[in-house]
């Protein structure tokens, strides 16, 4: 039986925590474990081209043992790999993080798909295929290698395609969705398991709702929770009942698991704390807009990066707030970080009513580099901004008179971030 599965964002990123010899390279959680090379590549004893190559390897998958310091900020970083000559350094120009995996399956697309020489946006062939069924012979991240009249070429499916139905394994209590095919990655060093993607089948309308995955330990307690679940194309084509799509997530588990649970929540997820939340200034309310963990100004294009909006009751009494309307906006920018034209806008759900003490709300902005016309944005500089009110009106429990909180705007409470979206660090 054939079902519709959106593989456009099936981003199987093979990123692990790896061991790196401190004498010659730094260790980063996001360093790739493997790297697929698509051209002949010179080997060096040192991370210095002046030392001269000692050998050359043909296109293949290599396994990473280290990176040069500050690699994440460089266009063509030095990478240390294991070879028959021992650890050697390379500086790849045409490569993709991850290991190409051979498969034998068929897909059917109902849209035109551009053909690429390599699984890199900078290498289009200029040709494309129309709606048809094709043989897939390999996958690498979200890319698929297919047979064509030009030989084997790569495609990046940005729209729903058809694939063989896969078994469904876990459903939320109210029957909104069923989740399957969770992709587990296990660290060889720490032994922790990381869930990065899966498939979801939509049974009921989930507009205004979000999905959370819980890892359940052997004792039945929760041992891990997902930071986000982003359903493929949900920012451009909201999921509808009957859809089967891939999704991206980030769920890390150290302990052994007995299984997983699926929870359906409002987009603004309620969070409760055991103790009072305190702020530096003693404010009754905290409203923040934050980038992904480890944000340094550059993010890879084509991957989901969670920006979050959070609001907390930081007083010791229940608050009743007047409607709080906010909007997430994306603008083109330039090297001077100037705000240019608006390319995307998303209205957040309105927050209103009672917020108990020790309670807050958090939302992961469901956006993955698309514009207002539902097209993927190209790599480049952008400004991501949260448009929010300057003041919030509220009433404390036991008080009759409304009060006004002046929303803070300072370096500790930024409302806009300049972001440079770039291709893979290993692309030209």
Number of helices: 0
Total number of β-strand segments?
A: 36
| Helix/strand/pairing category | mainly beta
Average pLDDT rating: 81
Low-confidence stretches: 1-30, 162-168
Helix content: under 10%
Strand content: over 45%
Number of domains: 3
Coarse shape = globular
Instruction: State the distance separating the first and last CA atoms.
Output: 42 Å
User: What radius of gyration results from the CA coordinates?
Assistant: 24 Å
Task: Based on the model shown, name its key terms.
single chain; 428 residues; mainly beta; Immunoglobulin-like; 3 domains; five-stranded antiparallel β-sheet; 36 strands; globular; disordered N terminus
Structure description:
The chain has 428 residues and is an all-beta fold. The protein has three domains: 1-162, no CATH class; 170-266, Sandwich (Immunoglobulin-like), CATH 2.60.40; 271-422, Sandwich (Immunoglobulin-like). It has no helices and 36 strands. The strands form eight sheets. Strands 1, 9, 12, 13, 14, 15, 16, 17, 18, 21 and 22 form an eleven-stranded mixed beta sheet that branches. It has a five-stranded antiparallel beta sheet with strand order 7-6-5-2-8, with no helix packed on it. Strand 10 and strand 11 (124-129) form a beta hairpin. The protein is globular.
């Amino acid at each position: 039986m054939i079902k519709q599965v959106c593989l456009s964002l099936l981003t199987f990123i093979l990123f692990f925590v790896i061991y790196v010899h401190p004498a010659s390279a730094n260790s980063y959680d996001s360093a790739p474990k493997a790297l697929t090379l698509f051209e002949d590549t010179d080997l060096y004893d040192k991370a210095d081209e002046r030392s001269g190559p000692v050998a050359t390897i043909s296109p293949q998958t290599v396994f990473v043992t280290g990176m040069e310091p500050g690699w994440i900020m460089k266009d063509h970083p030095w990478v240390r790999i294991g070879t028959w000559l021992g650890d050697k350094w390379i500086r790849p120009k045409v490569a993709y993080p991850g290991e190409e995996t051979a498969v034998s399956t068929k897909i059917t697309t109902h849209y035109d798909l551009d053909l690429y020489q390599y699984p890199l946006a900078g290498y289009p062939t200029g040709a494309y295929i129309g709606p048809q069924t094709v043989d897939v012979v390999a996958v690498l991240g979200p890319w698929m290698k297919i047979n064509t009249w030009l030989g084997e070429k790569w495609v990046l499916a940005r729209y729903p395609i058809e694939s063989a139905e896969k078994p469904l394994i876990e459903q939320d209590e109210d029957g909104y969705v069923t989740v399957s095919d969770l992709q587990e990655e296990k660290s060889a060093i720490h032994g922790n398991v990381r869930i990065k993607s899966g498939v979801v089948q939509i049974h009921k309308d989930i507009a205004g709702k979000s999905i959370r995955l819980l890892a359940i330990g052997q004792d039945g307690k929760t041992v891990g929770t997902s930071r986000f679940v982003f359903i493929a194309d949900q920012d451009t084509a909201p999921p509808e009942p009957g859809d089967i799509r891939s999704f991206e997530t980030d769920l890390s588990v150290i302990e052994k698991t007995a299984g997983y649970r699926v929870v359906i929540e409002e987009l603004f997820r309620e969070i409760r704390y055991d103790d009072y939340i305190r702020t530096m200034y003693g404010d009754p309310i905290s409203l923040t807009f934050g980038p992904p963990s480890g944000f340094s100004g550059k993010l890879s294009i084509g991957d989901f990066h969670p920006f979050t909006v959070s609001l907390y009751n930081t007083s010791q009494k229940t608050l009743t707030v007047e409607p709080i309307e906010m909007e997430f906006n994306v603008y083109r920018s330039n090297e001077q970080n100037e705000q240019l034209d608006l390319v995307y806008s998303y209205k957040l759900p309105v927050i209103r009513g009672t917020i108990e003490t020790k309670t807050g709300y958090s939302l992961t902005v469901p956006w993955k580099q698309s514009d207002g016309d539902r097209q993927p944005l190209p790599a480049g500089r952008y400004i991501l901004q949260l448009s929010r009110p300057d003041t919030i009106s509220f009433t404390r429990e036991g008080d009759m008179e409304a009060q006004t909180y002046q929303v803070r705007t300072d370096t500790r409470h930024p409302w806009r971030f300049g972001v440079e979206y770039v291709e893979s660090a290993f692309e030209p």
